[in-house]
Amino acid sequence: MSAVRSLRKLGRAALLGPSPRHALPDAIEHVAKAHRAHHPGADLDALRRAYVLAESSHRGQTRKSGEPYITHPLAVTLILAELGAETTTLTASLLHDTVEDTEVTLEQVRAEFGEEVGYLVDGVTKLEKVDYGAAAEPETFRKMLVATGNDVRVMSIKLADRLHNMRTLGVMRPEKQARIARVTRDVLIPLAERLGVQALKTELEDLAFAVLHPEEYTRTRELIREHNAGADPLAGIAESVRAVLREADIAAEVLIRPRHFLSVHRARAKRGELGPCDFGRLLILVAENADCYAVLGELHTCFTPMMSEFKDFIAVPKFNLYQSLHTAVADTGGRVAEVLVRTHRMHRVAEAGVIALGDPHRAPGASGADPAGEAAAADDGRADPTRPGWLERLLEWQSHAPDPDTFWAELRDDLAQDREITVFCTDPGGPGRTAALHLPAGATCVDAAYARYGAAGHALVGARVDGRLAALGTVLSDGDSLQLLMAPEGTSGPSPQWLEHARTPTARIAIRTWIDACAEDGERSEGAGGQARTARPAAAREPALPPAAVPDGPPAVPGGPRRAVQPRQRPAAVAGMPGAPVRLARCCTPVPPDAVVGFAVRGGAVTAHREGCPTVARMTAAGRETVAVRWQDSGAGCRVTLHAESLSRPHLLADLTEAIAAEGAAVVSAEVEPPREHRVRHTYTLRLEDAGELPRLMRAMREVPGVYDVVRATSPQP
């Protein structure tokens, strides 16, 4: 009800029009009061001028509720002012809809209020559906996120804008309410969490919960109403804690912090019936970091601690700047209370997140800089807390997303990861070359390779985790020491199975791009004509691997330069097509003495397949003409992919690798699938000096204890 009354007051003030020139308009007095509480010396002239422009440009416009439209930017600005946003953010917030919904231009905003305000207003301005159609919403979010990468205040304004829109969502049609609430749940709430703006996040969660799950929301509201009708047992525990801290001479403020609606619902789903102390937590605020640990010591001495509930987010802050001590204690009556302990500064950052950091472009210590923000940055140990690791990764992968649908889907998946880990990656080049990689929880060695090397992560062939060989799909843990083993560039590439290991959009998009590019060489061409869909990047083209498979016909002089990674390749020719290169299909990796057949592909090349390869049957059925191909003795090596089927046991990977090395084969890549019913499949891509060595190698692998079959690889058909 307080939000409704506030909205009505804003409406009445706006209808009265602006105050006399140079006086602060009545409609923004409450904004100014909230702003001065955090920034006593702030110059309010920009706010006055921004309100005058916004009120005059929006005059005559109304919201669906019937209120004057100006009440919306005023409400958004008040939200930000109460969280401690600085003047530039508030100025842009008052103007955030002018360029989108009025005759005011971005150039006018820049000329009147400066480049920073213009940048923030531009960052939150939606793209037109007339120009972008169904892609308008995802492309608008892409635009906002890119703008946030340069100035995090863009997303602060967007979050406050969405909060006020969610507060007034009831005037919308039910289907539109649900659509907006879903986007809020899937995108805006995770962004608020990652930016540390808990005050906005919790209210957004409750508002979305009410729209998307009305029955559960009603049930939860009734539980809270029943609980509030009686005495709160946390009040007695809080008084006991105050007495303990007074006796220990620790100055502290002890508050009862009620759980919000969704938190109560989640606690009930996790614990079943809720106890009388489960509807809130104790919040203890102190002056200094050392006081937090002093409080913890007194709590664990004078009450019974629940050690399984203890977490130290002061020594190890969350990736969104959050710092607190979490614990739970039981009093003499056996009542258990959850407790949060933090400093006043930590509390401000926990509530307002990046908004508490102030102007990200202002030099530390400069006039108007936010001491709480500077302290948060220093405590977190990150040079630029307004450009966190997760945002860097998002900005990187979004630039490679091929279309709005991919971006939108990957964004939702990426934001669903609610925890971050740090692994320490050492290059094989030697000591002193260690990089800290910030990855989402659940990330694997494959994700780490693409995070470390970008598209060059295609060359990953193995990994060591804490000094031990590990499968590429190994899930990494916080603090792991990682060494990525990379093949020479251009000699290796990902397989479709890597997609099962990839958790990050950076890895998934890069792998899919490689696979799609490889498909254009003929194995997955569409239609009888086998026309390629797009030009294939040079790095993704398959190398022509010796021994050379050449089409029947006389040898000819090469038609172009040979790849440096394959210096021993012999010239190849096709009857009527002198100099055409021959590539060995990755789907079946033919080697002598396999019977082979070829297909002409883009660029005048020929791709050679084993005759029994399923791709051959599919392409022939589609009307593709075959090209006769024969092996030419080059005295060079060959490359082959083998599957080793075995019973799971310790050290199997090491024993197989040792057997392969004993036969003189070089491992290009190796993968181990998760065991199923005590059976496991190892996949090796190997390079042999002589194709005639293959049968002996396969026998040696079968002799390894636990291995019951070794077969040549053939890709499954799509």
Automatic annotation (TrEMBL):
Gene3D superfamilies: 3.10.20.30, 3.30.70.260, Beta Polymerase, domain 2 (3.30.460.10), Hypothetical protein af1432 (1.10.3210.10)
The name this protein goes by in its record: GTP pyrophosphokinase
Family: Belongs to the RelA/SpoT family.
Molecular-function GO terms, alphabetical: kinase activity
Biased composition (Low complexity): 363-378, 531-543
Residue numbers spanned by region Disordered: 360-383, 521-566
Bias-annotated ranges (Pro residues): 544-558
InterPro entries: ACT-like_dom_sf, ACT_dom, Beta-grasp_dom_sf, HD/PDEase_dom, HD_domain, NT_sf, RelA_SpoT, TGS
